[in-house]
Each structure stands twice: as structure tokens, then as C-alpha cells.
Amino acid sequence: MTQIVAATWMVLAVARAIMGAVAVSSGTGGRVDPEFAFFLVDALAGVLGLVQLLALILGGLWLYLFVVAAREINREAWHERAAYWGPLGWIAPIVNLWFPYQVVRDGAAAVGLRSRMLPWWWAGWISLSVLALVEGVVLSSSPYDLAPWVISMAVLAVLTVVTGVLWIVIVRSMTAAARAATTVRT
User: Fold this and answer.
1) What pLDDT, in 10s, does the model give residues 101-145?
2) What is the pLDDT averaged over residues 30-50?
3) More confident residue, 178 or 16
4) Percent of the chain at pLDDT above 90?
5) How confident is the model over 156-179, as pLDDT tens digits?
């Protein structure tokens, strides 16, 4: 389920960037009504926000349950954070910059998964969070020149796709490693 939500998030981010580009180009002589295009950008932003909330809830729940299971699978494994930081780490100010990474890293290690993708995924996630803030600043600082805003939306969409794909691969890898660790060999 978390993978479906992540994929939906990626599609919406790309669609929003495309509609932003259409809105800006239609204001310069294109065939699409710019007001309608901007309405679609705002509507997609609203839906994207709901999908992000769903991703936060489902991803946090999955991570919590995964860490609980990983602790049962490997009772000797070191976990720097308690399982409840799986969901809470994403929303707690300041610690959201490193707690979720530690929870994922330690959970993966507990089931024997050593992934070189984890730091890349986390770097993408942090960059995504920063760029989302920058996008708002760019729009408010240059309301009459929308090209920087469209560029920031496009970069945000690409980064969302890259980070989302890495997250899906990590979730699948962690789940497969946990299943392999619990398989009884005869």
C-alpha cells in the first residue's frame, strides 16, 4: 500500500509541474486558459497534500510495524531509536532531519539488509523537503516572473520521482529481507 501511495505522489508531482508549465506558457500566447491551468495546479497541489498525508500515515505505520517485527526477528540488533519514532520521527520538528533515517537504517540492518541506497534516499528526501520550501519562496518573491517557479516545480517533480523510486525499492528490499530472515529452512 505504501508503494501505491508513493507512486501516486510521484505522478501528481509530475502532473503539477506539467500544469505549471502549461499555465505559464498559456499566459504567453498558448491555447490554454491560464486561469484554468492555474486552477488545476492549485487543485493538484491540494490532492498532492492529501496524498502526502496518507503517505505519512501509511509509511509511518509500516515503519513502526516493521521495526517491531525486526526486533522480534533479531533481538540482538542495535536500534538507536524506539519503534514509535517510525511514525513520529517524520513530524517531530528538528529530529525529523535524522530520526526517520536512523529508524529505517537500523530496521534494515536488523533483518540483514545493507543497502547503499539508504543514504541516497535520505539525501533526496531532505533535498525534497528543502526544495518544497524554496518553491514557495520563489513564487512569492517573483510573482510576475513565473519561469523560476516552473523550474522549481520541475526540479521538485524529478526529485520526487527519484526519491519515491528509491523509497519503493527500499521498502521492497526490507520486506524481502524480513521474509527471508523468517523463512524456516528444512
Assistant:
1) 999 999 999 999 988 999 999 999 999 989 988 888 887 787 677
2) 75
3) 178
4) 48
5) 889 999 999 999 999 999 999 999
DSSP of the chain: -HHHHHHHHHHHHHHHHHHHHHHHHHTTT-SS-HHHHHHHHHHHHHHHHHHHHHHHHHHHHHHHHHHHHHHHH-TT---SS-TTHHHHTTTSTTGGGTHHHHHHHHHHHHTT---THHHHHHHHHHHHHHHHHHHHHHHHH-TT--HHHHHHHHHHHHHHHHHHHHHHHHHHHHHHHHHHHHPPP-
Residues near 158 by beta carbon (within 8 Å), at least 6 away in sequence: none
User: With 0-12 CB in 10 A as exposed, 13-18 as middle and 19+ as buried, what is 35?
Assistant: exposed
Which grid cell is 43?
487543485
3-state secondary structure 59-108: HHHHHHHHHHHHHHHCCCCCCCCCCCHHHHCCCCCCHHHCHHHHHHHHHH
Region of 30 on the Ramachandran plot (φ > 0 left; ψ -120 to 50 alpha; else beta): beta
